[in-house]
Amino acid sequence: MPAVIQFLGYVPFPCPEDTIGRLKYYKRVNGLSYERLGAVMGRDPEQLTDWMSGRMRPSRKNIERIQSFLTRNDRV
């Protein structure tokens, strides 16, 4: 996806407003695997998969950590 975005000169889909949607957007825009995103965030990739698939909901503390991560990373 990063190559497509670079070619187009813009992101061809909107960024969601909810926290998990923004995390999915970040993963997609940056072309990250769950393993790489987990390494960058310091989280287990399976936990991220569960959150993003809707199988599990992150706790309030984890939501705050995700929001903090997304705030620190300007490509969202």
Task: Provide mean pLDDT, rounded.
Answer: 91
Give the termini separation: 14 Å
Tell me the structural class: mainly alpha
Element order, helices and strands? HHHHH
* Assembly form of the protein: single chain
Strand composition percent: under 5%
- In total, the number of strands is 0
What percent of residues adopt helix (DSSP H or I)?
Answer: 55-70%
Shape: globular
Can you offer a commentary on this structure?
With 76 residues, the chain is mainly α. Helices cover 63% and strands 0% of the residues. It has 5 helices and no strands. It has helices at 2-8, 19-29, 34-41, 45-53, 60-72. The longest helix has 13 residues, at 60-72. The chain is globular and about 35 Å long. The two termini are 14 Å apart. The model has no long low-confidence stretch (mean pLDDT 91).
Q: Topology, please?
A:
Layout: H1 2-8, H2 19-29, H3 34-41, H4 45-53, H5 60-72
Helix pairs in contact: 2-5, 3-4
What attributes does this structure have?
about 80 residues, mainly alpha
Put the structure in a nutshell.
The chain is mainly α and 76 residues long. Helices cover 63% and strands 0% of the residues. The two termini are 14 Å apart.
